[in-house]
Give the backbone structure.
Amino acid sequence: MVVVDPELKELLERLYDKYNRPEFIPEDPIAVPHRYTGRADREIAGFLVATIAWGNRKAIVQNGHRLMRLMDDAPADFVRNASARELKALTVFVHRTFNGADLCDFVVALRRLEEQFGGIGAFFESRYEATQSIPTVLAEFRREFFAAKHTPRCEKHLSAIERGAACKRLCMYLRWMVRSDERGVDFGEWQRIPMSALFLPLDLHAGNMGRALGLLKRRQNDWKAVEEITKNLRQYDITDPVRFDYALFGAGIDGYLKA
């Protein structure tokens, strides 16, 4: 456990204040669900862009907006009602190794969640209330998601926590949907999950910053590292530890350690 360091606390707060701003939105994948005001549209747009959120951020954002246009800029309606012909039109999409066939499988899986549980958000909220455990819900979600008919190759695009994966993109998506503050970057749609239950979206930048600041000792960026750094960040904000994702990620991509 990290002993609370007043200087580190001040640094984290300063970086959080610098990066948790509306100006952060346009160049980040969260810009894609920010196209919409409805919960269902935000849930689906957010999940799909989080799924492709690896590699160059500019390309992620561009491809996320392109994906929404392919879904007629109405992602919830598309998931619920798209015909076989309309689904086939998605096959032109590609982002790195995530292709149009993967996208079609994901839309079918989202449709099943809609029909079985009332939507992806309803699934996460109800399962968290039942289990009180985000790791358990992440495992349950992957199993339920792939209960729909799909091609096995698409499974690599949804991390498996039971295999020790850091689940960075899922944790980021949960941050978007659960966190709420006066800044308005995250959405705060899933109010039945407390912010205190979230886990840090751990990527290369956040991991390197966490180690440099003494918040993380584990060398691998896996789920054990996620648990370690989140536990230590809770010493600095027990109710909302994941808000420091802004500080670690933002400082990391801006080369804070090289300054």
